Amino acid sequence: MKQGVTVEKAQALSRQESVKAFLAKFKFKLPKFDLKTVLKKVLVPLLSIVVFLSLWHFGAEALRQREIDHRIEKTLADQGQAAADSLKACFAENGTNCQTNTLPSPSQVWSSVLTLIDDHYIIKQDKLDFISKTAVVNQQRLAVGQEPIVYTGRPSFIDIVLTSLKTVFAGFLLAFFIAVPIGIFIGLSDTLRNAMNWFIQVFKPVSPVVWYLLVFMIVKTMLIGSSSDNSFVISFISVGLCAMWATLVNTAMGVSSVDKDYINVAKVLKLGSFQKIFKVILPSSLPLIFVGLRITLSVAWMVLIAIELLAQSPGLGLFVWEEFQNGANDSNSKIIVAMFVIGIIGFLLDRLMLLIQNTVSFNKNAVA
Q: Closest by alpha carbon to 212, among 295, 317, 322?
């Protein structure tokens, strides 16, 4: 009996050892807790956000109080004590008829964010209702060769952002297909580079407003008699022409600075012109080309706002201008919302370009 118990204990111990050995294969070490790293990468950025929001809040309140005091003093001087007291009470109650027209507070901006999101879903539902109501009529119109009835209501803020993104990507692609080929040819030839240098130096600093006017002159003549809306075409061409110069210059610089040993190897291997460009020159030039593309995309996103305003294209530029002219109680807050959206999208676009650069380039140490 004792021998049986001993054997069972031995088998149990053996099983435990087997389980321990099995688990040891999957043993991992917990990352070492580094307080300094946590403070540097997490707590300090969070603290900076809190400081920024606090400064913004108190600054907005100070500006609001300054405007209130001025309006009360002006009312006192023009209309007397009773009117001034009434206005003061109205401001104290935060009445809709007594709103200030100054920098909004963070809470007001957040309220406008929620309002814009709610408006998006309301407009989206209106579009769906319109499509369902006009489905039969549109089928009949299409059957006889007529244009369908389309929704012409106001776009939501999400639609406006998507329109701006579509415009900036179209302008970026235009800049890419113009600047990269020309930059390659300029970089391959000292003669072409010297011949084109004046052209680049003269037109590179031209304002986006001037580029818009130039494109407008050409496009309105090219599309004369067309009933379609030309604002999108004018916008993306203006954006592309205004933003392409960084890519053009960096491509030419990258191609011209390719190591001569690589060129000599291509000659020894008797590579053709296109093979030399695509197998030797372009891979060596990619880091500088992508630096130019990142700058081009950033510039395209910045100038887009002014160009959309001028072209009356339904994007963020027109949205900001219309809210500025509207003068509603929440117009200033919506302008600040648009400012943050523009900044965040600009940052994400730059990160996207950096990701693509690190994916296709042999140089993995790109500048962040």
A: 317
Of 251, 310, 255, 250, give the one whose Cα is nearest residue 280.
255
Please indicate, yes or no, if residue 168 is contained in any of the structural domains.
yes
Dihedral sign from CA coordinates of 13, 15, 17, 19? negative
pLDDT per residue as tens, the chain (368 positions): 445 556 566 666 666 666 566 555 555 454 555 667 777 777 888 899 999 999 999 998 999 889 888 888 888 888 888 888 888 888 777 766 677 788 899 998 999 999 999 999 999 898 888 888 888 888 888 888 888 888 887 888 999 999 999 999 999 999 999 999 999 889 888 888 888 888 889 998 888 889 999 998 888 888 776 656 688 888 999 999 999 999 999 998 888 887 777 777 777 777 777 777 777 777 778 888 888 999 999 999 999 988 988 888 888 988 999 888 887 788 889 999 999 999 999 999 989 888 888 887 655 554 45
Q: Which two tokens mark 227?
A: 């009933």
Count of domains in the chain?
A: 2
**pTM summary value:** 0.79
Domain boundary among 94, 120, 135: 94
Burial class (CB in 10 A: 0-12, 13-18, 19+), 305: buried
- Say how far residue 311 (Cα) sits from the centre of its chain: 19
Same domain (yes/no): 44, 183: no
156: three-class secondary structure by DSSP: coil
The domain of 72 spans 37-94
* 223 three-class SS: coil
- Contact between 175 and 247 under an 8 Å Cβ cutoff? The reply is yes
